[in-house]
Amino acid sequence: MTSHFPRPILPGSGKDLIADIDAWLASDAMRALVTAFHGDPDALAGTPGTLLARIDALFEFTGSVNTRLEDAERNAADELPMTPDQADTTLAAVTALGLRDELPPRHREYDHVLMLGGLVRACFNRPAYAARLLDDGTVSAGAVTALGGHRPFGKKASDPNELESAISERLGHPELTEEYQALDLGTRLAFGLGDPEREEGEESPDPAKLPGLTWGVKHYRTGAGLSVRVAAAPSTVPERRAHTGETYAFFAERLASLKPGARLLLVTTPIYTPMQHFTAIRMLALPYDVEVETIGGDVPDRAPALRQPFTPTKYLNEVRTTVRALRALTEDALARDELG
């Protein structure tokens, strides 16, 4: 059986943020996904005053189908046993919800193109895709920024071949040991960059115990004069690396002078598009009145070591992180409406 569900508007892409959140939450795709794993689909719909409570209920449900430990990276998560019908429903639902999209950019011109780091594949794939969009004239940009953090490669993976160090070796770069190194190399290769024009940053007094105090920015320029920056953002909690929201905040507060109406194109991997989009709407669009668009994609001719099929379990795990990001966005959006 092959399922198909109508595609709701991705919240943050339409004109009415709260209404779009409500519609996305109670969509046929989300109802089917919850039903497939024995949850209560009726808990997804309700009055406007219950929106946060309904999101909380959905987040609690996602805990029952989540295999990723809170303190572990994504590649260490085990597979969730499921029936063929559950797997089929999962893939159809997440397609409608925006986790498998490779949609083209809506505009031709952007003020900023941003790529987030992540596991080692992301550090190569996302800059390569962004560079392809710029090189072939699909988009133009005033500046490009790769945002990551000083995160050492994980030591655990459900499959030893999926260890970041193993992937780096297959790529021919065994010297890589952490995310910022990989993101910098991936960006330099994608954009044909030489040495940085300048570097800035601060080192933690205790990198092992306080990694969140370390930050850095490398400033490059392409042969055509395009500004390209690779940044490792600091964390608000010194004991851990920066999370997605903190990297966006670092970009807005230190690297960019965002003006109302500016266009930002975020380039990521399809499976992470809604989560990163919701966080960008909260951290960038709401406080700075800018337009944020998030797309996911991969270059078709990338190296075999950079190719990664995503299982239904991987998508279920990302539904949980997506709902967490949606909850934070909804809370901020409702607070803004109350003040306005």
Short description:
By secondary structure, this protein is an alpha/beta fold. The chain has a domain at 109-308.
Could you describe the 3D structure shown?
- The chain has 340 residues and is an alpha/beta fold.
- It is built from 10 helices and 7 strands.
- A 7-stranded mixed beta sheet has the order 3-4-5-2-1-6-7, sandwiched between helices.
- Strand 4 (215-221) and strand 5 form a beta hairpin.
- The chain is globular, with a radius of gyration of 20 Å.
Ends: how far apart?
A: 48 Å
* Spatial strand order of the main sheet: 3-4-5-2-1-6-7
Number of helices: 10
What characterizes the major β-sheet? 7 strands, mixed
Report the β-strand fraction as a percent range: 5-15%
**β-strand number:** 7
Instruction: Let me know the average pLDDT.
Output: 94
Low-confidence stretches: none
Q: Helicity, in percent?
A: 40-55%
Mind telling me the C-alpha Rg?
20 Å
Succession of helices and strands: HHHHEHEHHEEEHEHEH
User: What is the overall shape?
Assistant: globular
Structural class: alpha/beta
Oligomeric state of this protein: single chain
SSE diagram, text form:
Layout: H1 17-25, H2 28-36, H3 51-62, H4 84-97, E1 109-116, H5 120-135, E2 140-148, H6 164-170, H7 179-191, E3 198-202, E4 215-221, E5 227-232, H8 244-255, E6 263-268, H9 273-288, E7 291-296, H10 312-339
Helix pairs in contact: 2-4, 3-10, 4-10, 5-7, 8-9, 9-10
For the structure shown, list the relevant keywords.
alpha/beta
